[in-house]
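re: the backbone from monday

yeah here it is again, tokenized this time
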């Protein structure tokens, strides 16, 4: 115990000395564009609630009705007694929405990546991964017995090289984020799919930050590039653009049936409560019926991104509502985040090891429910604090 305590104290003291230690702030209101956090009213630019669906009246109503009809939990794992009528309805809707034969929901996007990769890829296979893929993809790969290769970020010559090196493997999977969560750039999916096909590999794309954002009615990166039917595994989240909680894989019927037998999060963790499932169904209905939320998201994104760039901030290579403001050193990023908060904007500092030590940042995400007035006020605060800290 003494050694454990010494280790913990050492690590925490090191974080504090580098100015990068922080504890989660506490949200005291619903997840709107202006919220109360730690007792202070602020404009939040750190929520993944892209379309504002977490507070949509139709989703609230659906959740309440589901609780009244089905109770608050499913009571079991999917393969014993935890598959309810609602789960099947949601999965049929997801498959139709993603233009695939089938889909399977899992407890979170993180668990989906772990469960799918570790079930599908075995010893003798090869996994090829973009170097900036999400931690959940990396951890899923680590759970596998199959070897892996990493190619430089979005480098198609690098991808070709590792595909060439992987010719002797049984199965080869190329895996990429659709939208990269720290930089907000979009994967070159057409080129990845074409190269994978040339070498007999298959593609898995994680659309966590593409769902509700890219593609027709927010269908994701596969729809965005017109690649329906050419991507074997589309991973998505129900926790961001969809507004509730969970993850899913959109895939073939055979893949769904296989994952029901082998994916450990499906076999060993209780399924979604009915209220969550019902809210996801309602969210998909809204996306199918109306494109206005997605359109407003992109209008707000263009306004805010243009404003940051005109002020002289470094926003990297962002192409989406994820817009980093890169400042360099970790302590400065955390100081920047703290000063923004004290002035009325919540934009979380992101430091090493999540991002490179020389590219620490605050990460901003606008949503469809930010008003133009809120975004203009946020830009004024960014300008004031950026000049105060000599960032611009």
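seq for it, each position gets an aa:
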């Amino acid at each position: 115990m003494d050694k454990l305590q010494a280790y913990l104290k050492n690590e925490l003291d090191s974080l504090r000395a580098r100015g990068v230690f922080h504890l989660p702030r506490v949200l005291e209101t619903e997840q709107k564009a202006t919220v109360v956090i730690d007792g202070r009213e602020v404009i939040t630019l750190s929520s993944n609630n892209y379309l504002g669906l977490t507070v949509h009246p139709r989703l609230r109503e659906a959740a309440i009705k589901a609780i009244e009809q089905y109770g608050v939990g499913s009571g079991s794992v999917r393969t014993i007694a935890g598959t309810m009528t609602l789960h099947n309805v949601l999965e049929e809707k997801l498959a139709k929405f993603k233009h695939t034969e089938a889909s399977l929901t899992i407890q979170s996007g993180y668990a989906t990546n772990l469960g799918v990769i570790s079930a599908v890829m075995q010893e003798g296979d090869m996994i090829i991964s973009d170097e900036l893929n999400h931690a959940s993809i990396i951890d899923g790969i680590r759970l596998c017995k199959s070897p892996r290769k990493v190619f430089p970020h979005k480098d198609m010559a690098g991808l070709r090289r590792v595909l060439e090196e992987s010719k002797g493997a049984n199965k080869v999977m190329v895996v990429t984020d659709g939208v990269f969560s720290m930089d907000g750039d979009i994967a070159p999916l057409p080129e990845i799919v074409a190269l994978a096909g040339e070498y007999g590999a298959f593609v898995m794309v994680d659309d966590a930050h593409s769902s509700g954002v890219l593609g027709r009615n927010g269908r994701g990166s596969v729809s965005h590039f017109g690649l329906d039917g050419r991507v074997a595994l589309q991973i998505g989240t129900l926790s961001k653009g969809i507004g509730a909680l969970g993850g899913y894989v959109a895939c073939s019927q055979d893949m769904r049936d296989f994952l029901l037998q082998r994916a450990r999060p499906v076999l060993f963790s209780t399924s979604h409560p009915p209220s969550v499932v019902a809210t996801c169904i309602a969210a998909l209905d809204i996306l199918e019926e109306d494109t206005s939320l997605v359109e407003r998201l992109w209008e707000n994104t263009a306004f805010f991104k243009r404003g940051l760039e005109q002020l002289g901030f470094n926003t990297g290579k962002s192409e989406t509502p994820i817009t980093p403001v890169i400042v360099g050193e970790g302590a400065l990023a955390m100081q920047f985040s703290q000063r923004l908060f004290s002035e009325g904007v919540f934009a979380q500092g992101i430091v090493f090891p999540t991002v490179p030590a020389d590219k620490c940042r605050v990460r901003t995400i606008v949503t469809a429910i930010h008003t133009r007035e809120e975004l203009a006020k946020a830009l004024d605060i960014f300008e004031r604090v950026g000049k105060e800290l000599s960032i611009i």
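The chain has two domains: 19-50+291-388, 55-289. The radius of gyration is 21 Å.
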